[in-house]
Amino acid sequence: MAGRPRSGPGRGWLLRLVIAFAFAQGAVSMARPAVSYRALALGADETAVGVIAGVYALLPLFVAVPLGRRTDHGRCAPLLPLGVLLISGGCALSGLVSSLPAMAAWSGVMGLGHLCFVIGAQSIVARQSAPHEQDRNFGHFTIGASLGQLIGPIAAGALISGQGGALGRTSALALLVSAGVCAVALTSLWRIEHRRTTGTRPRAEGKVPVRAILGARGVPAGILISMAVLSATDILTAYLPVVGEHRSIAPATVGLLLSLRAAATIACRLVMTPLLRLLGRRALLTTSCLLAGLLCAGVALPVSVPVLAVMLAVLGFCLGVGQPLSMTTVVRAAPDGARSTALALRLTGNRLGQVAAPAAAGLIAGAVGVAAPFVLLGVGLVAAAGLGLRGEGRTGPAPAGSEPAEGRTEPAPAGEAVSDRSNRRSAPGGCPRDRRAARSPRSGG
C-alpha cells in the first residue's frame, strides 16, 4: 500500500523548517536590496552593483556539489545552523565595511550561508517526504522563502531612506537588522531531521558520477528551468532598486513592489496541488514560464507604478511554479543515493545563473540602460518555457504507456515528467527487482 511513512509523526518538522526558512530568507531578501543601496551610496555604478550581486553566488558555486555529496551520506541538519551563522555574519559585516571589494566579499559569505541552509533543508524535505507528498511538501517549503521575500523588502524599504550620506547610514542599519532577523531562525531548528531516516535511506554503491546524475531524464530540464526562474527573481530583487532610482520611485515603494511579487508567489504555492490536477506538470511549467518571460520583459517599459504593481503581481504568481516543481522533478529523476547531490547540482545551476545574470545585467545596464536586463530575463524565461515543453514531453508518454499505478496515492497529471525508472524507485515496498531496475543503465527511461 503506502509503504513506510517517511515524514515522522505529523508534519511539525516541516512547519518548523518553513518558519526557520522564512526568517533566513527574510534576512537575505532584506539584505540584498540594502547591499545595492549601500553600494550606490559608496559610489558604485550599475556595473559595480551587478558585480557585487554576482559575487553573492560565486563562492557557493564551488562548494555546492561537495556539500551535496556529504549530505547524501550523512545528516542534513548540521548545515542549517551553519547557514544561519554565515548569513548573519555576512549581513552584519556588509553593513560595517566601507569599501566595495569588502562588501562584495561579505556578500559572498552571505550567499555561502544561504546555500548551506538550502541544501540541508531541501535534502531533509526530499528524505522525509513520501513520493506522493513531494509536490505538496516542496511547495509548502518554498512558502517559507516567499514569506521571507514578502517581509524582507518591506522592512528594507521602511529602514532605507534619504540620499547620499543618509542613504549609506540607513542601508547599513538595514543590513545590521537583517543579521538579527536571520539569527531568530535558530529558535526553530530543533527536531527537524528524524534520525531513523538517516539509517533507512537507500545505500549507495559508491559515489554516483555527476555525469550519470546529469544524464538522468528530468534533471537537466529541472536545473535549467530553476536557473531561469531564480535568475529572474534575483535580478528583480537586485535591480528594481536601480530602476526605482532612475524612475524616481521611493525605496519604500520599491520594497512594497518586491513584496507584492512575493505575496503572489505565496498565493501560487498555496494552490499548487489543484493547479497540478487541473493542468499537469508540463502544461503548468510551460505556461507559467512563458507568461513570466513576457511580463519580465514588460518591466522594461516606462509604465506607471500601479501598472508596474499589477505586472509584478502576475509575474510573482507565474514565478512561483518553477522552483518547487523543479525540485520534485530533480529528486524523482535522480539515482538512489545521489538525490542530495542532484539537488546540489540544481543549486549550482541556480548560483551559476546568479553569477552570470547580474554580471551580464550590469554590463547591459551600463551600456544600454537599466531596463535592458529585464528584456534579457524575459528571453531566458521564454526559452525555459520551450525547454519545459520539450524536456517534459520526451518523458511524458513512457509512464502512461508502460507504468501501472503501483499503488501511487496521488493523482498523476497527464504531462507529468517522471520516467519509468524513477516511478519504480518511488513506488512503495520496493522489491529487489525494482531496486535492480533503479540501478540499471538509462536505456529506456
Describe this structure in words.
The chain has 18 helices and no strands. Helix 1 packs parallel to helix 5, helix 5 (134-159) runs antiparallel to helix 13 and helix 13 runs antiparallel to helix 14. Mean pLDDT is 75; it is low at 1-9, 198-204 and 391-445. The protein has helices spanning 12-41, 46-72, 79-96, 100-128, 134-159, 165-183, 195-200, 210-215, 219-246, 251-270, 272-279, 281-298, 305-333, 339-367, 372-395, 397-402, 420-426, 432-439. By secondary structure, it is mostly helical. The chain is globular.
Strand content: under 5%
Number of strands: 0
Instruction: Characterize the largest beta sheet: strand count, sense, and whether it forms a barrel.
Output: none
CA-based gyration radius: 21 Å
Low confidence ranges? 1-9, 198-204, 391-445
- Number of distinct helices: 18
- Which structural class best describes the helix and strand composition? mainly alpha
Terminal Cα separation, in Å? 24 Å
Write down the oligomeric state.
single chain
Helix content: over 70%
Mean pLDDT figure: 75
In N-to-C order, the SSE pattern is HHHHHHHHHHHHHHHHHH
Basic shape: globular
Briefly say what this structure is.
The protein is mostly helical. The protein has 18 helices and no strands.
Which tags fit this structure?
mainly alpha; 18 helices; 76% helix; globular; 445 residues
